[in-house]
Design brief:
The protein has about 575 residues and is of the alpha+beta class. The structure holds flavin-adenine dinucleotide.
Length: about 575
């Protein structure tokens, strides 16, 4: 099937890149590039998407894992932007990805003055109104809760000095799963999808439209020329670097802003709801995932290499300091089971003021870099689809865009169809395979209507039904599935982006390495030597990450993280 991403498919797609003519080559396989690839392919355009690392290895796999309506933008009276976000959230929850994007209640403790509370009530009222209208009424309206009612929902919340709380809804998602599902869905509609390949040049005569890109296969070092009449750059914080490959001086300007998250075990905070806090500097969420709490995020300027940002000890201390006052049982360092950092691509002022070549909203922008080359950057995970529509429309120009309109608002992602029927089978399937209700929920939220494909794999090898010994949240079959269908090329792709052990587990998945390689090695055709190399490389990465987390400055942390060589080296390391 076209949507199974694996080494054999990758080779086929590399061959197609070398031999066929493309309408659109998308550079970058984060949520923006994956969304653009799906938008373009589902319009019927011959599309390729090229990613230098693993899918979602950039900012898109290091988020707060929320699909947000953007409550905080209501404080800035940016109703248009909030309406856009709420519309996208509604589409994702109701039809595009209802298996991956789940409604999530939050409590917002009210400690503010009477005037601030009135402001909050007005903001949340507009939020509800937009949810009911443009958001398809997919999420329940807010509720005002007394202190006692709030404490019933979140006994571990400290509410002294608060006179109650507001309960409102947003949605949660495994960010990296959303990205890989977008890429697979794009492949289903004919897109060529190649990870661990870097676009190193673009070909065009001066002032003439682009004719192609040069792609370096980072697994082999081979370079190939891809013929295309259009390029869309979706490389997040690497935007300027990629634009420079076009030898043009227009485009977008993006700055990197670092955000970190802490992960704590689910049983550590007694609450049935997420918690939302507005601090003086930003907003912090205590966000429930199925087995963990994620706490974050922070926001600070980043001046180091763009590859592999890591949280520092100082940032972890600061975040603990911010959230502990609202927790009845303050969190200690030793209770944190994971942490990670990401770099937000923040859109800056544009290079030129020509409205024909640039379209900028509060958060994202689309610009022509050179004839046939468009750049899209900024924004949020939540609004990836909208950014993709605008980028492809912009590339095609009005007449051609009208002939090939976007259909992504009506195109469910893989796994979205049949989710209700599959949910109705949950108890029966659980009984057959020996999985409890929690495991079934985990599987349905990750695979949705595609679950039967995993069941077939288990039927063929019953050992795959068991949980991973060192990470029982995940089943062995999920490792196998990642190898045959989800575009894994290296051990770190499994442990960081498909299963989230690198981010969410205290040992960063080190304890699961042997078992995971024993499953993955044969499926990926690895020799004994390759298995050893993959393990050694991953364990070195974990040591370097742990050392970096003890550093007190970004500079020191980056130096320590660099002690571990990348399993595949790309040009991004030098940026
Ligand atoms: C801490 C944090 C929390 C966040 N939380 C949320 C949230 O909860 N909800 C939300 O909606 N948004 C959130 N965001 C924002 C969101 O993560 C980003 O807006 C979004 O992920 C950006 O995606 P992107 O695809 O543009 O960039 P990226 O995900 O960084 O992808 C760019 C990709 O381009 C690749 N690349 C670069 N150069 C090349 C090249 N030459 N050839 C091939 N590939 C190349 C890179 O390897 C990279 O994978 C958060 C961001 C951060 C940092």
């Amino acid at each position: 099937m076209g949507n199974r991403l694996n080494p054999a498919q990758r080779q086929q797609h590399l061959n197609a890149l070398a031999n066929e003519d493309f309408d659109v080559v998308v550079i970058g396989g984060g949520v923006t590039g994956a969304g653009v690839a799906l938008d373009s392919a589902s319009r019927g355009l011959k599309t390729a998407v090229i990613e230098a690392q693993d899918w979602a290895a950039g900012a898109s796999g290091r988020t707060s894992r929320l699909v947000v309506g953007g409550l905080r933008y209501l404080y800035l009276c940016d109703f248009g932007f909030v309406a856009e976000s709420i519309r996208e959230r509604g589409l994702l929850v109701s039809s595009i990805a209802p298996h991956l994007v789940k409604p999530q209640p939050f409590l917002w403790p009210m400690r503010e003055s009477r005037a601030e509370r009135a402001k909050a009530a007005a903001a949340i009222g507009v939020f509800d109104l937009l949810t009911r209208t443009v958001g398809r009424g997919t999420l329940p309206p807010h509720r005002q809760l007394s202190r006692e009612a709030a404490l019933k929902l979140a006994p571990d919340l400290r509410l002294e000095g608060a006179n109650g709380a507001i309960e409102f809804h947003d949605a949660r998602v495994d960010d990296a799963r959303l990205v890989i599902t977008l890429v697979r869905t794009a492949a289903e509609y004919g897109a060529c999808a190649v990870s661990r390949a870097e676009v190193v040049r673009m070909t065009r005569a001066e002032d003439a439209p682009v004719t192609g890109v040069i792609v370096r296969d980072l697994e082999t070092g081979n370079e190939l020329q891809v013929r295309t009449r259009g390029v869309i750059i979706a490389t997040g914080v690497w935007t300027q670097h990629t634009q420079a490959l076009a030898r043009a001086d227009s485009g977008l300007r993006v700055l990197a802003s670092k955000g970190i998250h802490l992960v704590v075990p689910k049983d550590r905070i007694n609450a049935q709801t997420g918690i939302f806090l507005r601090t003086r500097e930003s907003a912090i969420g205590i966000i429930p995932m199925l087995d963990h709490w994620i706490i974050g995020s922070t926001d600070s300027a980043w001046h180091q290499s763009l590859l592999h940002p890591v949280p520092t000890r100082a940032e972890v201390d600061k975040l603990l300091h911010q959230i502990n006052p609202v927790l009845a049982r303050p969190l200690a360092h030793g209770e944190i089971c994971g942490c990670y950092a990401g770099l937000r691509p923040l859109l800056q002022h544009r290079f030129d003021n020509d409205s024909r070549t640039t379209r900028i909203s509060r958060e994202h922008g689309v610009a022509q870099v050179a004839p046939g080359i468009v750049c899209v950057a900024g924004g949020k995970l939540t609004t990836y689809r909208l950014m993709a529509v605008q980028a492809v429309d912009f590339l095609l120009r009005r007449a051609e865009a009208a002939k090939h309109p976007s259909v992504t608002d009506r195109t469910p992602l893989l796994g979205a169809q049949g989710i209700q029927a599959m949910t109705n089978q949950s108890e029966r399937i659980g009984t057959i395979y020996g999985w409890d209700a929690g495991t079934m929920q985990h599987l349905l939220e990750r695979y949705g209507g595609e679950l039967p494909e995993l069941l077939e794999m288990v039927d063929a090898d019953l050992t795959l039904a068991a949980p991973l010994q060192a990470a029982p949240e995940y089943l062995r079959v999920e490792v196998a599935r990642a190898c045959v269908a989800e575009g894994v090329l290296h051990l770190e792709d499994i442990l960081a982006q498909r299963l989230r052990l690198n981010l969410d587990y205290l040992d960063r998945g080190a304890g699961a390495v042997d078992e995971v390689v024993a499953i993955a090695g044969p499926l990926l055709g690895w020799s004994a030597q390759r298995c050893t190399q993959e393990k050694q490389n991953y364990l070195a990465r974990v040591s370097a990450e742990r050392a970096a987390e003890q550093a007190t400055t970004d500079e020191m942390a980056v130096t320590r993280r660099r002690q571990a060589a990348d399993i595949v080296t790309s040009g991004l390391a030098g940026v």
